[in-house]
Recover the amino acids of this structure.
């Protein structure tokens, strides 16, 4: 593909139709030709940060195979731009496209910490681990300025409530002081996503994320400071990063990770069209091979939504991937395990010092 036609710094290369809208928007060739003749950019490719004010911030997770009971997201949309991201589809509920809009229209929940504290103060609430970034990354670039994730961590620390984090951004180290304080009472676990050791692969899959080297350094620093880290080899994409499972497992074990988890890529909803367009433009020499191998993992489709099989797939290629992960765990994580977080302190701190006088 001609590099001039690639939208730099973005994963998606188009805005797909929002399934909830009757009308659609498209860029016509005559408009692009007009912009070319006039020396104008047809697309400014700028990120917009838009404040939103939801009434709640913590969501009950009903899916039985995602490994969490509650999640919260400080941002909707994610500037990291990971081409495979399952969260893209959720942007349609906000009136945007799952394609470029997901990366360039970031909805910011400035009141997140207040909403969280209101929940934790409720008499009916009982301590269960809340996962930050169940949908979009809480340490995406917007967090550098807004600091909403840090504010929420301060609330978790105040109430001694367990929290888990999923991220692929080294910005998490900014909050090492709070993470260490939470770790003293076994109230924190961190999940770092690392999909490749190859920087070229990382750059095209996840254009605005921390480098692979930086993520390994992040795992090392967190681990050295007593913060338990699970590394997510997710997603595994056949013929893109599937050959890296053992090297990845070895590398993250050596820097202190206590466990690895994985999923096999599935292209649900609008992501199938977005990913197909992207790979045919970005990796045209192997596009059809990769797409067919993904289909092989999901019964002939790019997506399988059945609980129990959708995450790890089925068929020969999926079996090879899953067997490699099992081997990696036996080889590099035999005597390691992530701890269960502490839920016993929250009740004492729920009402602050008032509980001491009851």
């Amino acid at each position: 593909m001609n590099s001039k036609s690639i939208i730099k710094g973005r994963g998606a290369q188009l805005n797909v139709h929002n399934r909830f809208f009757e009308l659609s928007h498209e860029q016509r060739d005559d408009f692009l030709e007009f912009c070319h003749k006039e020396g104008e950019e047809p697309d400014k490719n700028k990120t917009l940060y838009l404040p939103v004010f939801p009434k709640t911030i913590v969501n009950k997770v009903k899916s039985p195979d995602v490994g969490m009971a509650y999640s919260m997201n400080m941002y909707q949309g994610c500037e990291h731009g990971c081409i495979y991201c399952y969260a893209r589809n959720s942007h349609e509920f906000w009136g945007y496209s799952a394609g470029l809009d997901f990366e360039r229209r970031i909805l910011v929940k400035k009141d997140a910490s207040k909403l969280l504290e209101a929940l934790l103060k409720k008499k009916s609430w009982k301590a269960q681990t809340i996962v930050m970034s169940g949908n979009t990354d809480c340490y995406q670039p917007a967090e550098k300025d807004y600091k909403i994730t840090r504010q929420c961590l301060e609330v978790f620390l105040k109430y001694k409530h367990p929290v888990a984090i999923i991220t692929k951004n080294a910005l998490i180290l900014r909050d090492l002081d709070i993470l260490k304080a939470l770790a003293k009472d076994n109230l924190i676990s961190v999940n770092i996503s690392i999909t490749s050791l190859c920087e070229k692969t990382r750059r095209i899959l996840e254009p605005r994320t921390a480098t692979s080297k930086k993520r390994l350094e992040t795992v090392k620093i967190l681990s050295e400071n007593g913060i338990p880290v699970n590394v997510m080899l997710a997603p595994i994409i056949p013929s893109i990063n599937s050959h890296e499972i053992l090297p990845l497992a070895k590398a993250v074990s050596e820097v202190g990770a206590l466990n690895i988890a994985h999923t096999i890529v599935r292209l649900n909803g609008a992501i199938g069209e977005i990913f197909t367009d992207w790979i045919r433009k970005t990796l045209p020499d192997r596009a059809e091979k990769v797409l067919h191998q993904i289909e092989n993992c999901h019964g002939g489709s790019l997506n399988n939504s059945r609980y129990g099989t959708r995450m790890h797939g089925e068929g020969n290629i999926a079996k090879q991937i899953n067997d490699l992960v099992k081997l990696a765990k036996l080889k590099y994580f035999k005597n390691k395990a992530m701890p269960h977080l502490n839920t016993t302190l929250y009740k004492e701190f729920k009402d602050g010092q008032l509980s001491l006088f009851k």
Summary: Residues 316-332 form the longest helix (17 residues). Residues 7-21+28-333 form a domain with the TIM Barrel fold (CATH 3.20.20.70).
